[in-house]
Amino acid sequence: RVPCLELGRLGDSDEEDGNSYVPYSRGYPHTCPLDSSSDWRTSLQMPSAQHLLSQQHSVLEQKTIPENLPSPTEKYKLKYRQYEADLKEEYKQYSERIAEKKKDRLQCPEASIKGTQLEDGHNGDLTALDEKALLQQCYTSKPYNMQHSIRKSEAEDVAAERRKQAVVEQVMVDQLSRQVNLQCTTTVFLREEFRAVISDPEQSTRADVSEEARGLLGLGTTPMRFRKRTLHETIIRTKSGLTENMLSNKLRFDSRIISRNGRDACRELIGFFFAYDRSLTVYEFRQFGKNRTNALPFIQKGVYQHQRGQRKGKAYDFSDFYIGANLTFRSVDHNLPDSVKQNPVLTLRVISIDETAMDFLKASSMEFKEECSKQVITDSRVFKKIQGILRETLSKRGVRVITGLGKYFQHIDKNRNGFLTQADFKEALKVFHLEVPEEDFESLWLILDDSKSGKVDYGEFIRAIVGEMNEYRKAFVRKAYMKLDFNKTGSVPMVDIRKCYCAKKHPLVLAGKATEEEIKSSFLETLGESCSNPNEVSYSEFEDYYEGLSIGIMDDDDFVNILRNPWGI
């Protein structure tokens, strides 16, 4: 048997550590025995923090101390009184802070938002929409801790590598299968050809004919036309077959379609440039649900030439593949979707390449030339000069100007083909107060209108005068939009954007200077103003919005946090 505990023998000791003492009242003992008819959940329910003091007083008043337990000494009574006083003071200070924040929000809910804008004081040209749009630039803190970020990045890299590996395997299977089918077709053709050739009396070689004419053929030697001939003795020759080793000597690159159509712009394209014959092919990776995937050819394997620019008409080589390079193809030459065929020239932007394969091919290829013509350098200087002139103007109102230009060009584009004249572009610059010197504008027009058609794609014009985000930033913009447009329709209802946008990690919300609803409303208002249809957002409008925000942010990580915090990517 376990001996009974005699509580009367317990006493205080001066050697006990006073810091480890917790007052008895901090617990929540039962003041009455549990009854079988009472609900045990009610008896175990914890009190709320707001009623903590009242419950402590009630616990003291109730007889919860056994009768045979000695009363606490003066030392512990003093400690408990100090603890009770500290708890009351902390709760009082907390209540005052909450009341002060509520009072500030009721008095001026938008004062905290406006007060955070433009510390330098240059806000004369800004509108209320500009100020609300600049609120999105405050998301500069990292949304995740370092360990979470590493795990998330590794998981994304693994998923991307699996997609690429699936496409690589599909390309190898398609090309080798194509070669096998070609060989089978060639074999059948050669059988029929051989029957005709083998019976042809003119199959004797010229050497045999000349020797026979000179009488050099010895006695007993039968002329070639009377001999039994096999396939290798005829004039038919077979070509060398394509092997897996030849196909493995390739450069892999990721690309995207430069288009204002959201469905086309978000297509996942993976291309391959083969070293053995300077041919290339592009595949599209598709995912149906969580487990079903497929890789289909988007550009069939072949040798292609540039369709635009200074290298127009020249075949592609290794020097044409780098991050940011444009690959152009004739749309009519390929079996493409109707939305892509609307533009006579399909333009693919290289967004990443396999650096390991590129280094290997550079080392093994003696013909690799990495050069940049003088004309390309001159064109780049013209772009940078105009962008430098407009950068100061666009640094604070980039969202309104870039999205406004897109809406303006769509409105005046009566043919809906994306091309406008020189007069249209000049008028647009005047409307949006973008001053470009006439000489620089003429130089820009000569570069863009390389076909001398008198019209230029207005998306290309905006990228030329404003510049564009690097591919690292654009990748996160596409990732955020694809999370919203999970059906890949090319447009997202504003209702879905309201549901997905989260402002919990906005600095003003964390500091108590603004509510989540205020930040969300300011974002939705500015985004809705940038859309031609306020009830839905297309990919081009979504990209233009963040293109305007990108102008005032120099660091790539800060820009990425603008997307990661509200969208959770």
Automatic annotation (TrEMBL):
<dbReference type="GO" id="GO:0005509">
    <property type="term" value="F:calcium ion binding"/>
</dbReference>
<dbReference type="InterPro" id="IPR018247">
    <property type="entry name" value="EF_Hand_1_Ca_BS"/>
</dbReference>
<feature type="coiled-coil region">
    <location>
        <begin position="73"/>
        <end position="104"/>
    </location>
</feature>
<dbReference type="InterPro" id="IPR057461">
    <property type="entry name" value="CAYP2_PH"/>
</dbReference>
<protein>
    <submittedName>
        <fullName>CAYP2 protein</fullName>
    </submittedName>
</protein>
<keyword id="KW-0175">Coiled coil</keyword>
<feature type="domain" description="EF-hand">
    <location>
        <begin position="400"/>
        <end position="435"/>
    </location>
</feature>
<dbReference type="Pfam" id="PF13499">
    <property type="entry name" value="EF-hand_7"/>
</dbReference>
<feature type="domain" description="EF-hand">
    <location>
        <begin position="436"/>
        <end position="471"/>
    </location>
</feature>
<dbReference type="InterPro" id="IPR051581">
    <property type="entry name" value="Ca-bind"/>
</dbReference>
<dbReference type="InterPro" id="IPR002048">
    <property type="entry name" value="EF_hand_dom"/>
</dbReference>
<dbReference type="InterPro" id="IPR011992">
    <property type="entry name" value="EF-hand-dom_pair"/>
</dbReference>
<dbReference type="Pfam" id="PF25348">
    <property type="entry name" value="PH_CAYP2"/>
</dbReference>
<keyword id="KW-0677">Repeat</keyword>
<keyword id="KW-0106">Calcium</keyword>
<keyword id="KW-0479">Metal-binding</keyword>
